[in-house]
Structures are given as C-alpha cells and as structure tokens.
Design brief:
The chain is mainly α. The protein folds into two domains: 1-32; 55-328, no CATH class. 79% of the residues lie in helices and 0% in strands. It has helices at 2-36, 41-51, 57-82, 90-104, 113-118, 126-161, 167-188, 191-200, 202-205, 219-246, 253-269, 275-290, 297-337. The longest helix is centred in the last third of the chain and has 41 residues, at 297-337.
C-alpha cells in the first residue's frame, strides 16, 4: 500500500512539474510561431491598444459582469441539487462554488471542484453532496455535447476544406459524440433507477447512503438543471462574442456560437492534466477554429487568455480567500467541541 502511495506521489509530481509545463511550453511555442507569421500583427496590436481607450471598453466591463452571472447560475444550480440533503442560502452556495474553482484550477480536469464545495456542507452531508454535485456537472456536460455536436455538424465542411481534419476523423468524432450523448442522456434521466439498482449490488449496498438522494431526482428537476446549464452556456457564448468585438475579431454571432461550441466540445473530451495545459489547449483550439473566419489571430489569442483569466483565475483567487475564512470557522468549531 505504501509503495502504491509513493508511486502515485511521484506520478503526480511528474505530471504537474514536468509533463504539464513541457506541454505548455511546446504549445505556446507553436502559437507564437502562428502569431508572428500573421501579416496584420502590428495592425491587430494597434487595434487592441485603441480598444482600451475607446467606448469598446464597455464590452470588457460587460464580460466581467457576465462572469458574475455565470457563477451565480452555477451556484443556483448547485443549491437546487443539494437541497435534497441540506438547505443552503444562495450566498453560501455562491461562496461554495467559488471555493470549488480555487481547488479546480490545480487539479486534472478540475476534479478538485467538489472538494471546495463540500466544505460548506455540514459534516454528515459532505460525502452525500458529491453525487449531487456530479449530477449538476453532468447536466452541463450534456448541454456542451448537444451544442458541440450541432456546431460540429455545421462546421464540418469548413473543417474539411480548411484541412484542419480529414473526412474520416470528422465522421469518427461526429458518431462518437452522438453515442456518448445518447448514453449520458439515458443515464441522466434514469438517475433514480440507477441509484436503486446500485443498492441491490451487495458490495455497493453499504455505500447506498451516499447516492440515495438521487432517487428523489424527477424529470422536472433534471430539466430545470439542464435549463440552467443551457443559460450558462449562452453566457459563455456572449462573453466570447463581446471579447471578439473588443479585440477587433470580425466574426458574426453565428460563427462565434458554433466555433466556441465546438471548442467546448474539444475541451470536454480531451483531458487536461494541469492548469497551464488547460490554458494552452484553449489557445490552440480557439486559434484553429475561429481562425477559419478571421485572420486576427492576435485578437483571438487575447480573447482566449481573457476568458481564462476572467472566468477562472479571478473566481479562483476569490475562492481561495473564502477557503481561508471557512477553514478558520471549521477550526473554531473544532476547538469549541474539544
């Protein structure tokens, strides 16, 4: 057992401090070469500088406000999910979501998000909340797959003519996404039945209390979660569109909708192993997809970076401060009990 722990420790060290940074450097170098080859690089930089001194700065302000709307929707969604085991105020849910982001940025595929949220649950309900939180994440993934699939179908001709992908891979990803979407949607709307089925399995039965609350999830609630996830998705699209306008990337709303939807699909199916590989992958995917409609690669790059900073880094910094405060509260409670 000790040997396994040591091996896992070295593996995490290798991922975070060697492989992750190495991939980040490699992708960054690739993007750098794409940018310096751009004919209108100097003009794009001048347009970006001018944006900060013009009325277009309101676009950036709107994106920041939409970031608050985005996480507020997620907080409301989480509040609805966990009310089966514990009632929490909206403000508490909002703090929990931000705390989850601070854990998420330093873990592969943001799995640490659940740990940050359950800190705000009562001690006996923390493990129960994990399966409910996963349900909320599943609703977001289903919306991502639906929109990504639609975008993939619409952009397939451009992907092939731009030589970004062969006909074989376009069809392979198309059918693979359809299959995954059907499977996830089936299990999503059968959560209550799945939970009851788990309780019949002998070696899982003793853990049944962890997911028993899922039996109360009816179709109305699941559709409500999907609706909130769809609203969040539209907020993301609006943020991209506003930043494209701010940085002088001339793409239409429809082009933004489908290219960003496909980029989210790619981000959902490709695992990221570290914080900076997540960022570099965003850069690369955005440049390839949006680059089919705009030659302003610098503006596309700036949009990707700002989305990453506004939607992830700023909330993570806020969440880290909240975690410090919740740790003090938990410590005080522990001392009082002693």
């Amino acid at each position: 057992m000790q040997k396994r722990k040591t091996t896992a420790k070295y593996f995490r060290f290798f991922i975070h401090y060697f492989l992750g940074p190495l991939l980040f450097i490699w992708v960054s170098y690739s993007i750098y070469h794409q940018l310096i080859k751009e004919d209108r690089l100097e003009r794009s930089w001048q347009e970006i500088q001018a944006s900060f001194a013009s009325s277009r700065i309101l676009y950036l302000v709107a994106v920041i406000l939409l970031m608050v709307v985005n996480w507020a929707l997620e907080a409301f969604k989480w509040k609805i999910c966990i009310q089966r085991v514990q009632q929490v105020r909206f403000l508490t849910a909002f703090k929990a979501v931000l705390s989850g982001v601070s854990f998420a940025v330093s873990t592969p595929n943001r799995v640490g998000e659940y740990l940050g949220r359950v800190l705000y649950m009562d001690e006996g309900n923390r493990l129960k909340a994990i399966s409910l939180t996963i349900t909320g994440s599943l609703s977001q993934l289903i919306i991502t797959l639906i929109m990504g699939l639609a975008g993939w179908i619409i952009l397939a001709p451009q992907l092939e003519t731009s030589h970004l992908m062969s006909h074989f891979w376009i069809n392979g990803i198309l059918y693979g996404t359809i299959f995954a979407l059907l499977i996830l949607t089936f299990f999503y709307f059968r959560l209550a039945g799945v939970a009851r089925w788990f309780e019949r399995i002998k070696w899982i039965r003793k853990y049944g209390w962890l997911f028993r609350a899922l039996e109360e999830f009816n179709a109305t609630l699941l559709l409500q979660l999907l609706s909130l996830s769809a609203l969040r998705f539209l907020v993301f699209i609006a943020q991209y569109y506003l930043l494209f306008r701010f940085f002088g990337v001339e793409v239409s709303w429809e082009q933004t909708l489908w290219t960003v939807s496909v980029s989210f699909l790619v981000m959902a199916v490709i695992p990221t192993i570290a914080l900076f590989t997540d960022l570099s992958l965003r850069w690369e995917v955005s440049l390839k997809l949006v680059g089919m409609f705009s030659e302003n690669h610098l503006g596309i790059w700036f949009t990707s970076v700002n989305i990453w900073v506004i939607n992830l880094i700023i909330p993570a910094l806020a969440g880290s401060l909240l975690i410090l405060s919740i740790k003090k509260i938990l410590l005080n409670k522990s001392e009082q009990q002693e």
